[in-house]
Amino acid sequence: MSIAPSQKNSGKFALAKRIAAAVVGLGVVGGAGFLAYAWYPSIAPISRPAASFFSPEAVKRGELVAAAGYCAECHTRTDGHKGPEMAGDFQMETPFGNIYSSNITPDPETGIGNWSEAAFKRAMNLGIARDGTQLYPAFPFDHFTKVSDQDVSDLYAYLMSRPAVHLQPRDNTVPFPVNIRIIGQAAWKLLFFSPGRYKNDPNHDAQWNRGAYLAEGDAHCGACHTPRNAMGAEKLSHAYDGNVIDGWIAPPLNDHNPTPVVWTEDELFQYLRFGVAPLHGSAAGPMSPIPHSFLSKLPESDVRAIAHYYADVDHAEQRQGQNTAAIATAMERSKKNLVGPQTDDADARLYQAACAACHYNSAPGPVLGRPELALNNALWLDEPNNLFMVMLHGIGAKEGQDQIAMPSFYAGLTDADMARIAAYLRRTRTNLPPWTDLEKKAAQMRATLKTPPINASH
């Protein structure tokens, strides 16, 4: 008995409907499962506890946790005018729009004054606000999740003991659909976030583990020194390979760092503790406040532990044998190019007039306070950003080495002048290929400055 074509079509249509229904059903179940994963309930507000509720010891410990995490750096407004400390409204420019940091003073209305400790811990551990909102990863909860429960509790005690500031941060400018946090941020976490406290590595000693705990967790060094993917997540397969932050290049912290002299544990310690390393120069730009305003408050042993950890990350012990020859080569290059005003090299004359007086070294090694540019990261990076940024910003007397300043040349040098100096230094102090489009890049770096530096030379 044959089946009519209409009956065949009817059977195919019924099968297609069943398949479509199954797909829709799976989609509904999957969507419901995702929403169950993404949704968090609000945690009930509390009355702000009195500062006396917290022990002085806990508050003091919490102050150190705040210093190690640079809380004031990202929770204090700096554009336009200096805002109250910890009251938020710091502008973070991201590929997805501007994000403004939250007020973390204990103001009940605009800050965290009505947050319980449980709500605060959830934010640190999981990136979820008290009201259940998914937080953007501009708040580095992917690092703070590694901070111990005790340190988070102490940090809460410190923040809740500070003066309350009534200040509502500006609204974020993140566009649709990224601003639909329950979808976008939850999906981001599903792909890139692994919650959990730091666990000691038994293959390393206590100092290494202390350094790793601080660096990977509270200090969140990878947030600036690790490149990010198109979704804004750290490329963990390229951890510490360097990144661009506000125009500055945060250089690699591993053995991909191109400077000819290895960052040894002692060089790292000097840089992180005092803001200047004898062989590598001064901290500048976004890095400058880290040693001076934050890490200087920590016990010396903690800063040493961070240096110990990163010296292992960059395999300093295995590589530092190259340092003696690298220093000798750098000094030879500098001496060879110490030319007088009668030289035919116009770029050299410009460098002599603007820079040489403070960067001259004739001894077998560089003198502290006279950074040897042939050793400096800025000349060995793939792009001239940092060299131009230092020229434009300068380095204040409270930055870098104590009471030694470099003036800003924002008004004293044109983009063409900066390009000539950069080209001259690259070709005479390194063995690397020349940078390209230098004048254009100088103009781009100048454009990143909203206002001229106050110490700009004329």
TrEMBL record:
SUPFAM superfamilies: Cytochrome c. Heme c 3 binds at residues 355, 358-359. Residues 57-163, 206-314, 342-429 form the Cytochrome c domain. Binds 3 heme c groups covalently per subunit. InterPro entries: Cyt_c-like_dom, Cyt_c-like_dom_sf, Cytochrome_c-type_DH, Membr-bd_ADH_cyt_c. PROSITE patterns: CYTC. GO terms for molecular function: electron transfer activity; heme binding; iron ion binding; oxidoreductase activity, acting on CH-OH group of donors. The keyword Endoplasmic reticulum does not apply. Pfam families: Cytochrom_C. Heme c 2 binds at residues 221, 224-225. Heme c 1 binds at residues 71, 74-75. The chain crosses the membrane at residues 20-40. Keywords: Cell membrane, Heme, Iron, Membrane, Metal-binding, Repeat, Signal, Transmembrane, Transmembrane helix. GO terms for cellular component: plasma membrane. Its cofactor is heme c. It is found in: Cell membrane. The keyword 4Fe-4S does not apply. This is Aldehyde dehydrogenase.
